[in-house]
Description:
Structural class: mainly alpha
Strand content: under 5%
Shape: elongated
Low-confidence stretches: 1-13
CATH class of the domain at 93-299: Mainly Alpha
Amino acid sequence: MSNAITETLTAGDRSRTLSARFAANRLALFSLAVIVLLLLLAAVGPDLWPLSATDQDYDAINAWPTPAHPLGADNLGRDTLARLLRGLRVSLLVAVYVETLNIVLGATLGLLAGYFGGWLDQLLSRLADMLFAFPGLLLAILVAGVFGPAITQTFGGIGRLLLVAGALSLVSWPLMARTVRSITLALREREFIEAARAVGARDRTILWRHLLPNVMGMVIVSATLDVAGVVVNEAVLSLLGLGVQPPAPSIGGMIVQSIPYLETNWLQALFPSLALMVMVLTFSFAGDGLRDAFDPKSE
Length: 299
């Protein structure tokens, strides 16, 4: 009983220490607050804002900011703020979906391969090597370009969105798997794992109760840092016309659609570019803060 209480208190002290380290990084803390704000805007903003992201106002084509359109309107008279909120939702949905797949697939396979080794480790290593042989974004472009039209015709916009996310996840989960595998290889020889084996703990118990909690910190850090790259890659796919298709908005699509009208209204390129920059920077700074909190030696 006393051992259980001691372990609980130790876990609580560790949690408070991590929180204190993260809170000491003002830039990371501010970035986390901005991320929460972006998530709220993406979740409820499109539903609360009264204007549609696809309806056209022919009296506001390429309009500068006005009370009716606070961020102006694009070349078709569509409200920029409504499209920006909807595009923000698309980008963050893709990021969340990709990182969920990375954690579920990459972390699980990396944990199993690192602990059991043998043929599973060899299979994962060869599969990762094969995927790493392709430039990541190029492979995502290939998948989206080949399967995109059929998926869009069958499942519509949501199918296209899931395809883009799946293509990006295809090129990013092997890195997560390798990270978790390398940590697991080091941990499986530690004394607490040997002690668990000595008392007859099953492999499943060792994996989920002893190894997983010790790798989750690095998994969260890697996923947070990877979000910035996912957001940029989604924007690139949209810039190339392989992402979410018009009239549905996306951050990358808004940027490319505004380029021919820079001389008429350059704000239409500025606002989505700023949104993309804010997402990339905040997730990068928050990821750095988490890395420093979990590993003070990295400071």
